[in-house]
Amino acid sequence: MQNKNLPNIKNKKDEDIEKIEKRAILILNSLGFKSFDELKGKQILDIGSGMADLALAAKKRGIDIVCSDINNEYFQKGVKSGLDYRWFSGYNIHTEGESFDLVLSSGSIPMISWKRSQVVELLKEAKRVLKKGGEFRFGPGCLIAAITDSNLSIKERISYMRSTKEAKEKRRKISLEILWSYDPNIVETLISLRTKYPTLYYTMKK
After folding, report:
1. For 51-65, how does the pLDDT look when each residue is reduced to its tens digit (9 = 90+)?
2. Alpha carbon distances (Å) from 98 to 91, 182, 183, 202, 206
3. For a designed S-S bond to 49, which of 33, 67, 106, 146 qualifies (C-beta 3.0 to 4.6 A apart)?
4. Mean pLDDT across the chain
5. Taking the model in full, what pTM does it have?
6. Alpha-carbon span 134 to 43, nearest angstrom
7. Residue 116 parent element (H or E)
8. What is the helix (H) or strand (E) element at residue 85, kind and residue range?
């Protein structure tokens, strides 16, 4: 007979797994993938993996994703979980060139990079480690550098951070200008403008 005063460990574990699955699917969809099947058979690198929800969910489906981050807590947990979790920043990817078919970054750099030079630096590294024909998908939303590293006045920066349609379009425009300064073939895919911030992702192919 179960002691009602003891926590139900099995249910807690199931809840954690369910949360990981939900977060992983959210990441997957935000980068334009409809299912994990689109990742099968590919060598994949995830930049700024954090808690590695995507890699953990993918592993259950027989898909291996190389994770990376410079957060020691995430790194240690990832290694203990049996993931191929590596300690490096996307600005300096510790791997040989042309190693991956797909490079991913969700909610990390270059999205949260404050300087245009950092965005370009990341794009260069991602393209270096991509195999010919491979692609780098990153998002969601616009680049922070579109606001923080621009010739905008303080008043303009504040106005561009609003959730108005005009502000969203301006952030999209500046983000593309920054990305196209390195590779004019980078593609923006818009998912929705109904959210507070534009829901979109970018694709760079090699």
Report:
1. 999 999 999 999 999
2. 16, 19, 18, 20, 10
3. 67
4. 91
5. 0.89
6. 10
7. helix 116-129
8. strand 85-87
